[in-house]
Amino acid sequence: MTADHLRVALGGVPDPDWLDEALRQVAADPATITRFFPAAGRRCGREALPDAPGWTADEAARALLLTALPTDHAGYADALYRRGDAAEKRAVLKALPLLPIGAAGVPLLHDAIRTNDTRLVAAALGPYARHLDAAAWRQAVLKCVFTGVPLAVVADLDSRADGELAVMLGGLADERHAAGRDMPADATDLLDRLTAGSGRPTAREA
Amino acid sequence: MRIFDPHIHMTSRTTDDYERMAAAGVRAVVEPAFWLGQPRTGPASFTDYFDSLIGWEPFRAGQFGVRHHATIALNPKEANDPRCRPVLELLPDYLEKDGVVAVGEIGYDSMTPEEDEVFAAQLALAVAHELPALVHTPHRDKARGVERSLAVVRESGIEPGRVVLDHLNEVTVPLARDSGCWLGFSIYPDTKMSPPRMVEILREHGTERMLVNSAADWGRSDPLLTRATGEAMLAAGFSDDDVDRVLWRNPVEFYGQSKRLDLDPADLAAPSATFAGNSILRGGS
């Protein structure tokens, strides 16, 4: 996803003039973003965008506001996340990979993954999660399984999933089976892919 | 029966309550910021509380199909503690948030000069942020408290139609009725107001500008007393339409003045349909 793509996908929002003007002002005077950011849902709506799968209008508008900043993207992302409601936090998380900030947004991922708001956990596991170290990333994936967040939200799942994650998923599967409870199907599939040929019984056989 | 509880402190309630409320017809709530029983000692504690009202609590409510909104303010009781006064400086940020549909609870507890000041300052914030105001009327010395609250409201310049005076009773109704403000009634198991008394008040004064809430919190209270009041109205001969007006359309009209009410159920469930229907997620535990 790119900022240009989001801009096009937002073509049909209820109040496009508001967004244009907000983007212009943020580019000229960065501090104005604190005023526009909370209002974006009311002005641009909260519908899913057909041309930007996985994004809603408010998320896309807020991400664009962040990309419009001329400077200090990391500082504003941090402040807007810390002072944001759940929807604003989610938008910051989704915007992180579009911003020229290197790994500076990682503390926000840690904060989101610590919460029990599954929408925040999901938003933290997009493409920017490549900056998470392996241990934190595995715990976050396991938390998705544990809390019912579909693994489809996890970027780079197959390329990053490793033997250690298989051990952790296997442990959860054992506990679930002992309790007579099911594992989510997407987690069972992942575990099967990870353990294929390893000699460990597959999750379905266990 | 569709129910909008315009005043309930869900932070203090369990998921069992959300489940029972949803089953009883409660589809939307407003949670006013108030005190928590234990006095707070500084602004950081309020920040976390306010963040919860616009973050975790709406998420928790959403798991049960209940739409959650908040009102934000420094409450009158803690307005008296100078350590909490800097909370006023935190408010403008919060009053711009989507889920914040009024300034509240403001008003009087013991009618001190500190409360006067903080009440007036927050009515000015309501005007500046184009939000309605939720005014808590004092439990002690209530009649004079209502009178004095109305004087402060008049002086502030906020339109009376954008103000609700809450926790009213038989004695304070006429004064509030004449002011043009909305009238809030907190139905409690055995104190502030009961369903049968509420029905009598509706008989005498009509259903216009009337808001019925449970004000359920950490004290002895019952989040289903909105429903019980609706049933008492029906038993007393009020129509389904009367009940819908009091328990749904009136709160929608009052808080709708914020232009921030969002009653679309579409995004209540989680990010994907595959986990809609999951019972509340016990993540991390």
TrEMBL record, chain A:
Quote the InterPro entries the UniProt record gives: EboA_dom (IPR047715)
Isomerase as UniProt keyword:
yes
Keyword list (alphabetical) reads:
Isomerase
Does the record carry Isomerase as a key word? yes
- What molecular functions are annotated in GO for this chain? isomerase activity
Q: What is this protein called?
A: Sugar phosphate isomerase
From TrEMBL, chain B:
Q: Name one GO molecular function term.
A: metal ion binding
Q: Which domain of life is it from?
A: Bacteria
- Stored Pfam families: TatD_DNase
Which keywords, in A-to-Z order, does the entry hold? Hydrolase, Metal-binding
Q: Does the keyword Metal-binding apply?
A: yes
Coiled-coil segments on the chain, per record: none
The record's InterPro entries line, in alphabetical order, gives: Metal_Hydrolase (IPR032466), TatD-like (IPR001130), UCP005295 (IPR012022)
Instruction: Write out the similarity annotation.
Output: Belongs to the metallo-dependent hydrolases superfamily.
What is this protein's name?
Hydrolase TatD
